[in-house]
Amino acid sequence: MEESLIPKLDNRWLTWAAFVEETKMVGYLAGPMVVVTLSQYLLQVTSTMMVGHLGVLPLASSAIAIALATVTGFSVLLGMACALETLCGQAYGAQQYRKLGIHTYTAIFCLILVCIPLSVLWLNMGRLLVFIGQDPLISHDAGNFISWLIPALFGYATFQPLIRYFQTQSLITPMLKCSCASLIVHIPLCWVLVFKSGLESIGGALAISISNWLNAIFLSLYMWYSPTCTKTRVPITMELFQEFREFFHFAIPSAVMVCLEWWSFELLIMLSGFLPNPKLETSVLSVCLNTITTLYAIPHGIGAAASTRVSNELGAWKPQAAHVAVYAAMALAVLETLIKEVVDYVTTMAPLVCVSVILDSLQGVLSGIARGCGWQHIGAYVNLAAFYLVGIPVAATLAFWLHLRGIGLWIGIQVGAFTQTILLAIVTSCINWEKQASKEREKLFQGLQ
Predict the structure, then answer these.
(1) Which of 6, 89, 92, 29 shows the shortest CA–CA distance to 311?
(2) 0.85 cut: is pTM over it?
(3) 8 A C-beta contact, residue 363 and residue 393
(4) Could you give a single Gene Ontology term from the biological process aspect (predicted)?
(5) What is the block-wise mean pLDDT of the chain (449 residues), using blocks of 10 residues?
């Protein structure tokens, strides 16, 4: 019985037909994932833009609050949820459908637990900002704003695992519909709460919280009532507690991997505040960072698709098919960078931003491949070395010692990104796909015992 549940090894090597077919599959998954990522990011952008019309103080306080919420909360939950790209992706490939559902419930429960200490931190964020020397008025308003984001934290902890639940099964339509529906509701809702309810800036935070929960509710309803989820829909039982150890085994290095990269860019903005004319330097770097964040939705979508295809094929014990998926994903990443390079040239964007776009495109896909293989711990080491042993020191040296200021900071962080891309490429090229698939086969046997 055990042997019948394990798909036979696919010995086909890379052919043009296999490559084209796999590229279509990766593209089919990546396109909607780009829209899903953008729609989630636009929830915060919309609230910030509307609150900005209230004045300089509300804009500054809300921007600081959202940045702190992202660094201390959302990035942590997102990173931990990425563990499901390994667990659920490989379980689905191995046809262990029940285990996929249990992994999802375990992740939701664990992330909600993580939200409790994060909520305590957020409730005291205003005091902490004053303590570290920030303007008391801005700190007070930012503290109020982030306090109203606490419900969004719990909603985020619920819908991020659900996104991975659908993503790893290649069920992209539910995610696309739910994310777009939440954004469509969010825009008028935010306008009413900010300008018509008397809540003003707090209304922007409340709108984000409501929209995050709408995402979670929409996906949950689809999961429970759609016939497409019949195989993986399981009742909530005490069995979810048995998966804690395995989840945190992947979740912790996954969170470190994501946060180390995310925080390095936020540290870049902080360093710009110590340069001459800090308002100008911070504003310019913030614009560059926001541009990169928006454009990063594309490689993130391709990376998510690559993670799904690689983990599915490894779980099904098809190492060669996983290898083909890597080639297809990297081909799409290269194609995307070429298209962006043309657009950047036509619109005369800054050359350094163009370099950042190219590096983000490559490393976004390579990171997805690492997650699909369950190598989050290696990704964490790579990001630590690339950004904190290379990128940040180079940035500080160029900006303060060689007096290149903001340009030096941006060059330094791109040196770190280049190092990250090279290291991830080396790791990917060294993967023994047969050995990797054999490991997943052993896990499958253990799960059936």
Answers:
(1) 89
(2) no
(3) no
(4) xenobiotic detoxification by transmembrane export across the plasma membrane
(5) 37 68 85 88 88 83 84 92 89 89 95 96 91 81 93 96 92 90 95 92 95 95 91 87 89 88 72 61 61 75 84 79 80 73 44 65 77 80 88 86 77 85 86 71 56
